[in-house]
Amino acid sequence: MQFNQEKADGSLYDYLIEHIDTMRGTWSSDSSSGNASDDYTNQKLEEMKKVFAQELVHVFREEETQFYEHFEEKISAIVEENKEMWQPMLTIQEEFTYYRNAILEQIRLFVHQYEESIPVDHVLGWQRKALQAFDYAGRAFMKEAIYHMNEQMQLKEAMILELSSPIILIQKKTGLLPLIGHIDEQRGQVIVEHTLKQCTESELTRLYIDLSGVRDITTFVAQRIMQLATALKLVGVKTTLCGMRPEMAQTAVQLGISFKDIDIVSELTHALQANYAL
């Protein structure tokens, strides 16, 4: 009897669908995901496994181009829905190994019990389809997960930058901006934008900028401070610089940096005392 390739493909697909729960059970028993630190993470991992297990078997039924288009969309959706779990997802390659072994074992069992003899080349073709799908899924998962990881890191960095330039309300309509550490281009821009926003929202009329925590003064830092003071003046906020250390002042002179049109006092305490005396 001539081997019926279409019939065998359909039978394998039906067999794998029928044994989905068996494969998932083998996957979960072999997997290390159950060692996650909390029940929520374990639950989400099991949900992802269920969707993935159901989707991958379609590689044996659908046309290849159609399958991978749908498969990519499904992987993107899984990652998007669980993007807060990017760390567990970065270990998904190990999880794929467990499921790959489970599905290859089911293919072996199917071939063993199938009523007709299946050519070796066709069995190897099934195995190759499965392995290609797993390789594709691994790359797609990693790509999507890393993208969302970078996205989250950028959001956290932006939040940290905003928190690094807080305005402290010391009196009605009077605020203090303590600057600490190194000020690079990105942070300098955030300081200008965030300070303007805070001063406007708080309806401040005076702002003290404390430089005692700034590591060094550069032309760039001076330009940003001047930019900030000019912008604040336009919205009705008077700026006073304080806490400039002697070595910082000396560097400013050497660099030809001028803080014209900005009030400067040596120490924050002097500035505050003068303010409260008003």
Describe the protein's architecture and organization:
The structure is a single chain. It is built from eleven helices and five strands. The protein has 278 residues and is of the alpha/beta class. It starts with a helix and ends with a helix.
Average pLDDT level: 81
Q: What about the largest sheet?
A: 5 strands, mixed
Shape summary? rod-shaped
Query: Which ranges are low-confidence, i.e. pLDDT below 50, for 5 or more consecutive residues?
Result: none
Q: For the largest sheet, list the strands in their spatial order.
A: 1-2-3-4-5
Structural class: alpha/beta
Tell me the fraction of residues in β-strands, as a range: 5-15%
- Strand-and-helix sequence, N→C? HHHHHHHEEHEHEHEH
End-to-end C-alpha gap? 105 Å
From the alpha carbons, calculate the radius of gyration and give it in angstroms.
Answer: 32 Å
- What percent of the residues sit in helical stretches (DSSP H or I)? 55-70%
Number of strands: 5
What labels describe this entry?
10% strand; alpha/beta; 11 helices; 278 residues; single chain
List the helices and strands and how they pair.
Layout (H helix, E strand, L loop, with lengths): L4 H14 L1 H11 L8 H18 L7 H18 L4 H4 L2 H22 L6 H44 L4 E4 L2 E8 L3 H18 L3 E9 L4 H16 L3 E5 L3 H9 L8 E3 L2 H10 L1
Parallel strand pairs: 2-3, 3-4, 4-5
Antiparallel strand pairs: 1-2
Helix pairs in contact: 2-3, 2-6, 3-4, 4-7, 6-7, 8-9
